[in-house]
């Protein structure tokens, strides 16, 4: 599964470079986006003198696979974080309902105690 449409069309290093920068825009935060943009630029500089066509195709294939893995990892984190947020909210709601129910019981007990005290004072 390719992270963005058009991965199968990437044939040259320049196309790969543009493609990977577009992938970076899909990442959730500016900090993560900048980190991976920097990594893409560094890798492009490191391999800029590569002239073997087979090696270039290997690098392109591996870079697309890596981008796919990174985007899937970030998406999984986002889904998991959203799930945890939802579970925390449900827990808070359950605790709130629990305390409301117990508060009603406490109010009733407090009222009964006060009523007993009032009746005792009257006698």
What spatial form do the alpha-carbon principal axes imply?
rod-shaped
How many DSSP E strands?
A: 0
Terminal Cα span: 83 Å
- Level of helix content? over 70%
Low-confidence runs: none
SSE string, helices as H and strands as E? HHH
Protein name: LYR motif-containing protein 9
Domain Complex 1 LYR protein: 12-68
InterPro entries: Complex1_LYR_dom, Complex1_LYR_LYRM9, Complex_I_LYR
Pfam families: Complex1_LYR
Describe the protein.
80% of the residues lie in helices and 0% in strands. It is mostly helical and 123 residues long. It has a domain at 7-92. The longest helix has 70 residues, at 53-122. The protein is rod-shaped, with a radius of gyration of 30 Å. The N and C termini lie far apart (83 Å). The model has no long low-confidence stretch (mean pLDDT 75). Residues 12-68 form the Complex 1 LYR protein domain.
Q: Which helices and strands appear, and what pairs or packs with what?
A:
Blueprint: H1 13-24, H2 30-46, H3 53-122
Helix pairs in contact: 1-2, 1-3
